[in-house]
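Review form for a predicted model. The reviewer records the input and the model, then writes brief findings.
Reviewer: anonymous (R2)
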Amino acid sequence: MLTPATRHRDFPALDSMTYFNTAAESIPPLCVGEALQAYWQDKLRGMKGRDFHFKQVEECREVAARMISLKPAEVSFCSCSSEAYNLLATALNLQPTDEVVVTDLDFPAGATPWLAASTRPQTRVWQAAQGELRVEDLVPLLNARTQLVQVSLVSFYNGHRLAWVPFRDAVRRLAPNALISVDVTQALGRVVLDCADADCLISSTHKWTLAVHGGCVVGIPERAAARLTTHAGGWFHLRNAFEADRFQRADTKSGAASFSVGMPNFAAIYALNAALRYVEGVGVEAISRHADPLVAKVHASLLELGLKPMAPAQPTNPTGILAFLHPNTAGIFAALDKENIHVMHHAGRIRVAVAGYNTAEDVGRLLDVLGKAVK
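Model under review:
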């Protein structure tokens, strides 16, 4: 996918380290740094710089829409996924008799707004069995009171990828009033998405999309816009922010546009526009074709070392994340860190993230040091 020359050109930081932590923080290509510098030059224009800023917003909206298979008008931006989910909670305005389903493989941003709401709905947890979410365990949780089912397409915790079609069909059949919200943070830019028919898609921007902090993509199809319009103060998402009646009423734009409540984080938008276009130019399918065999190699080697991956193998539907537990993960992490091999270590769990810029040589180095550390 990347030749040694293009990898060195676009990701020179990788020359000095072996990096398997993209699920936490990506290494952006140099074009992202150039985009941030372009933002700075435009900012120096003062007010006239806004013409360039807003042009970047619309360009970014177009490429983001292509990446998640929606129309540009169905895409907007927040500052982070936590902001997006809290705004989603205002749109739903759930009551104590309403029910929300979340999973125990979800990131806290998507699972906790319903627990922190001033008027709390009943939150039901779809629990994973042996590292995977099984539709038969979801079925008893769904009913006419279910208003939202919140999932991650790929789990940050163990890399499990949700079987989208049977999940979606079960929700539509058994919970006719429910909206489906999906966090694609650990999928966008790494795997081909199959969830464009969700009612809400949310992704942070500093992981597989190869951009920086301070951004979040929000996608809401037009058919769900009326139900998913936020009830939040601000100005950028209002039609009448500076009209004569602005202190009598707030005329909120519908759907995705309602999630951009204030001035866009232009620096993050410049970065995201460049990053998504870089990923699009390479092609997510090409990224998967390159990286998935590397994931399979790591998975098989973990088993050979007696390290059981926390999610079952998915040879037909792989992701970029593998995770495992071990009594001495601290020691294993220290051995990897000593050799400048970057992985995630948290709460007795080591998580390995294999990206498009990783190579077979990277994997060989990882497995060599890992094997010695385990022994």
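Findings: The first strand starts at residue 18 and ends at 19.
Further findings: The mean pLDDT is 96.
Recommendation: see findings above.
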